[in-house]
Design goal:
The complex is a heterodimer of chains A (231) and B (109). With 231 residues, chain A is mainly alpha-helical. Chain A contains eleven helices and no strands. In chain A, helix 7 packs antiparallel against helix 8. Classes of the chains: A mainly alpha (231), B mainly alpha (109). The interface between A and B is large, with 84 and 70 residues.
Chain lengths: 231, 109
């Protein structure tokens, strides 16, 4: 492939690089606290390739969470992709393994690049999309690996590094609020989460709270059909 | 804590779940994507999930006790950083850095 395509893609993906490498490193350092080999931090970047889910994985691994709980939580955490992905479908001409890889690598950042940038003149669209996805994943894997390796080497205290996880969810929650502008679902989740944590189960808090919340949302929607003051 | 088979199983499950969310719109969901129920859940479930994950990401015995003050301070810093600069990376790394300082200098003890 031409080096000019690589240069174009590198320039287009530069902002993603500045996000993925430090965040990947934060994940790697956090992951290394679990005591696993740093190669596994690299493997998670290669196979899972999802920021929030990988951070969550550290918490789930530390709590020895069950596989079903992990599956449901990961699925729901990433389910926002379902609502993004639809708009890219018409713009994706790739077939076979190329299509599979593009879908596999469809992170928030890659998605936003693919929908907001165009391939340079004379360049095949699929080649451009594949290159962007591959560059983005390379940054992420590099960050994860570096962080995992550094975390097993460094001597300064990393106490408190686990706060990247709540910090990430706090940021995502603020972004959700900017988008939705309604406090009710946030308050409902806070009340349900604390209630389950304090009175029902610490170990199964996530799964029980998610199920309860879905039930409340559905009941509310069902009730709203007969309620003129619906949201 | 170092159970490698468990770790590999977790990586496999998370890989499958993540790929599923990315491939679903391409295989079936484009047919039902505008179903009102899916739209409704797609709108209100993500905020609920972020709050629950936020709660879940703390050491759970510490919540609602005095030992939770450093976490609250950290969250406040993330909130202020994110409302003023709106750069996710700065908010996350800045908040974490401050939290690490608070913890390691034992500012709230």
């Amino acid at each position: 492939m031409s080096s000019s395509l690589n240069q174009t893609v590198f320039k287009a993906t530069l902002p993603v690089m500045f996000g993925y490498i430090p965040l990947g490193m934060a994940f790697g350092v956090l992951f290394s606290d679990l005591g696993y080999h740093w190669l596994f931090a690299c493997a998670m970047g290669v196979f899972i390739f999802a920021g929030a889910a990988q951070f969550l994985a550290v918490g789930l691994l530390a709590n020895q969470a069950g596989l079903l709980e992990i599956f449901i939580t990961t699925f729901l955490l990433n389910s926002r992709h379902i609502f993004y992905g639809i708009s890219l479908m018409s713009g994706m001409q790739a077939r076979g393994w190329r299509r599979l890889y593009l879908i596999f690598g469809l992170t928030d950042e890659t998605f936003s690049l693919l929908t907001s940038t165009q391939p340079p003149a004379g360049v095949d669209k699929t080649a451009y999309q594949l290159r962007v996805t591959l560059f983005d994943q390379s940054y992420w894997v590099l960050g994860c690996t570096l962080g995992g390796w550094l975390g097993s080497q460094i001597s300064f205290s990393t106490a408190g590094i686990e706060f990247v996880l709540p910090a990430l969810f706090m940021v995502l929650a603020i972004e959700q609020y900017r988008h939705l502008r309604k406090p009710a679902p946030f308050l409902m989740a806070l009340i349900i989460g604390l209630f389950v944590l304090l009175f029902i189960s610490r170990d199964q808090m996530l799964l029980i709270s998610i199920l309860l919340s879905v039930a409340v949302l559905l009941l509310y929607r069902g009730g709203a059909k007969w309620n003129p003051y619906r949201i | 804590m170092e159970s490698v088979p468990y770790l590999i199983a977790v990586i496999a499950v998370m890989t499958a779940a993540t790929f599923l969310t990315r491939v679903l719109p391409f295989v079936i969901l484009y047919k039902v994507a505008d179903h009102p129920l899916l739209q409704y859940l797609g709108r209100f479930l993500p905020p609920v999930l972020m709050v629950l994950l936020l709660l879940y990401s703390f050491k759970q015995e510490a919540i609602l006790s005095r030992a939770f003050l450093p976490e609250l301070a950290g969250l406040l810093i993330v909130l202020v950083l994110h409302l003023s600069l709106r750069n996710a990376l700065i908010s996350i790394l800045g908040g974490t850095g401050c939290y690490m300082l608070i913890l390691q200098l034992a500012l709230f003890v």
